[in-house]
Task: structure prediction
Amino acid sequence: MAIWQYRLILIPEEVLLNKYDVLPLAIPMELAKEFGWWLDRQPPVDFEQQIDSILLQMDSWSTQMRMWGQKHGNDAYVCYVDESKNKVEQIAFRVDASAISRDLVRQICRLASQLRCVLMTPQYEILVPDESMVLTAIDGSTARRFIDDPESTLRSMDCKKIEEQANYLTRNWRKNPPK
Result:
């Protein structure tokens, strides 16, 4: 993911409400990364056709993934549990903050609503699929600040937080390195 891309992960609202009584403003990083949001509730069979109508398909670098859009621009991806692509693990979009498309944001929100999902931001905040709410979040994001002032944005980034996230992501690799 490029720093100028703003990621929105679709999470089934029902599953989140089963974990919390009300929609939280944000969720812990560990829960966001570890919990199988789609394992007990799968999207309708034709949901990929809805993504086809939003962005053009592109080649995927993984056999367990489908991708749409443009590399380092606006894109979408669906991760599956295995190569059969029968069980969804994650659905996400990345919005290019250098050329924010209101139409794309509107279509992402429409799809999220149709799938009865909320949107999780890169900071693990939870947004209802509302176009103005999502546009406001993108406008205040690191991705947008990077577009406006790359040097200042990079200098102001919290290195400790980035290191914690990197350590979290690589913890299993350190315990069981690839052979």
Observations:
- Strands lie at 5-12, 57-58, 65-69, 75-80, 88-96, 117-120, 126-127.
- The mean pLDDT is 89.
- The radius of gyration is 16 Å.
- Residues 16 and 156 are 32 Å apart (CA to CA).
